[in-house]
Design brief:
Elements (H helix, E strand, L loop, with lengths): L6 E5 L3 H13 L3 E6 L2 H11 L3 E4 L8 H11 L4 E6 L4 H9 L4 E4 L4 H12 L9 H13 L17 H11 L4 H8 L3 H15 L4 H10 L6
Parallel strand pairs: 1-2, 1-3, 3-4, 4-5
Helix pairs in contact: 2-3, 4-6, 7-9, 7-10, 8-9
Protein name: Response regulator transcription factor
InterPro entries: CheY-like_superfamily, NreC/VraR/RcsB-like_REC, Sig_transdc_resp-reg_C-effctor, Sig_transdc_resp-reg_receiver, Tscrpt_reg_LuxR_C, WalR-like
Pfam families: GerE (PF00196), Response_reg (PF00072)
Length: 222
Amino acid sequence: MSEQTVKVMVVDDHPMWRDAVARDLAAAGFDVVATAGDGPQAVRRAQAVTPDVLVLDLNLPGMPGVQVCKELVGANPALRVLVLSASGEHADVLEAVKSGATGYLLKSASTEELTDAVRRTAAGDPVFTPGLAGLVLGEYRRLASDPAPAAADEPKAPQLTERETEVLRLVAKGLSYKQIAERLVISHRTVQNHVQNTLGKLQLHNRVELVRYAIEQGLDEV
């Protein structure tokens, strides 16, 4: 997916910041289809223009960003949400991820980091400001260590091949497809195929769910 075909919407209640982000993304070649300054407006406009990536501030008047995220991703699971926030607070990051955000970037990020994050978010990569990824991994690990009681008739986890497990382990560590391809000396397409096969076997829908599964299995620690 080239930048020209990626439709982006920017949501922030500070007009100067919102316009600057929209301008930077448009200059980088993205198709900025809309902006919004409050929660209800964000939901209405996003439903009207159906962006591929929503760049979302959490602190919005009318409706908090996490609620905006929850509503829009609930209605359109294909939507990628990149939170762009001034807060690096543990609780804010986790709440955003749990509400459906694909990534979380601090507003201290450079323009290059932002455009790269939007590009990677559009491709389905979970993107986090360095340091925050570890926090999210730690939370999923904590949840995984407190397993829900399994039903008696619950099917066993499907078996993955050695290579699929290897790819999954690297996905859990936050590597991009390109980095995984380079490390395993295989093509980008082969990595995608392994991920698609794994998603199919595990009946998961996207890379974020795949990462969660991998972390629950402790694959990021190996």
